Amino acid sequence: MNILEEIVKTKEVEVARRKEVVSVMQLEKYPGFQRTCNSLKAALQKEGSSGIIAEFKQKSPSKGEINFEAKVEEVTKDYANAGAAGLSVLTDHDYFGGALANLAKARAANPEIPILRKDFMIDEYQVVEAKAFGTDVILLIAACLGKKQAKVLAKKAKTLGMEVLMEVHNVEELELVNEFIDLVGVNNRNLKTFEVDVETSVRLAGLISERVVKISESGLSGVKEIQYLRQNGFQGFLIGETFMKTENPGKACRTFIGNLKG
Hints:
phosphoribosylanthranilate isomerase activity, tryptophan biosynthesis, alpha/beta, 10 strands, Indole-3-glycerol_P_synth_dom, lyase
């Protein structure tokens, strides 16, 4: 069993447990469920956009602890003030140290900026949950979904007014991209081996439909990489570790965006 398969099995147990604690009907009464979502697609396409989706991530299976001192409301607000086009918040606890509470705090601190819920989505319950906690965009990871399952989850998100980011790693996974997908992210990190190669984004760029916004994810640490990826049609760049491993993630984000625009 590889790490992705292990995560999905853990997630199945976790979701079943949460369903017993809070029902869908209860989630639909949460204040966040009624709000109108912010568009990440529009934010990335806006003229002058930095294209940066700044992520709040405190640990990962490949790196271990990254930054447990950081406070989500402070860091995400600093990211937004630094010029990030969007935010990404990890909600998986067991493997990434995330929490739904972090999502709620980020939302309260940043009402106007698009927020992506970063988790392993395998059940419609999680989609409803995402909306209830103030999410604008859900992540669907092609590597852990079937084609039918991906379509059901994406359609559910769209009916709730959210956008959908489909994450792929190879050509085969592009087959899961359906009419409900707004953004396609190429993860440069292989979730089965954790090896990183930015050329993964470049290889897949020309195969991704022009209908969606292209996002490059993982292993991005330099301005030249962003410029190179832009030349290959990417408008979004998800960056977490590069910022989070510093003492002041918000400041690191501001410096990065400043260098990008300079």
